[in-house]
């Protein structure tokens, strides 16, 4: 995670890290689950992709797993 953002890509805040997700495609962007309009954190076996990667229509590997952000 060398290029990992240190703040939510949507709200630009660096607080509430336990509710942030790391994109499974780019491994760079992080976002609070609620800033991505999710009702809760996804299960660890569910992939999550940031809005940039979703917009690129990137193929998601079935092996991807939701990754929690840890400061």
Could you give a quick summary of the protein structure above?
7% of the residues lie in helices and 11% in strands. The protein is mostly loops and 71 residues long. The protein has a three-stranded antiparallel β-sheet with strand order 2-1-3, with no helix packed on it.
Write structural notes for this entry:
With 71 residues, this protein is low in regular secondary structure. 7% of the residues lie in helices and 11% in strands. It contains one helix and three strands; from the N terminus they run ββαβ. It has a three-stranded antiparallel beta sheet with strand order 2-1-3, with no helix packed on it. It is globular, with a radius of gyration of 11 Å.
Q: Could you give the count of β-strands?
A: 3
H/E element sequence = EEHE
The main sheet orders its strands as 2-1-3
Strand content: 5-15%
Q: Roughly what is the average pLDDT, rounded to an integer?
A: 83
Class based on secondary structure composition and strand pairing:
little secondary structure
**Low-confidence sequence ranges:** none
- Rg for CA atoms: 11 Å
Give the termini separation: 11 Å
């Amino acid at each position: 995670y060398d290029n990992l953002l240190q703040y939510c890509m949507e709200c630009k805040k660096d607080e509430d890290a336990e509710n942030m997700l790391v994109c499974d495609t780019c491994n760079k962007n992080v976002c609070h689950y609620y800033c991505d309009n999710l009702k809760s954190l996804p299960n660890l076996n569910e992939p999550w992709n940031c809005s940039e990667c979703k917009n690129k229509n990137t193929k998601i590997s079935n092996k991807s797993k939701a990754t929690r952000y840890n400061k």
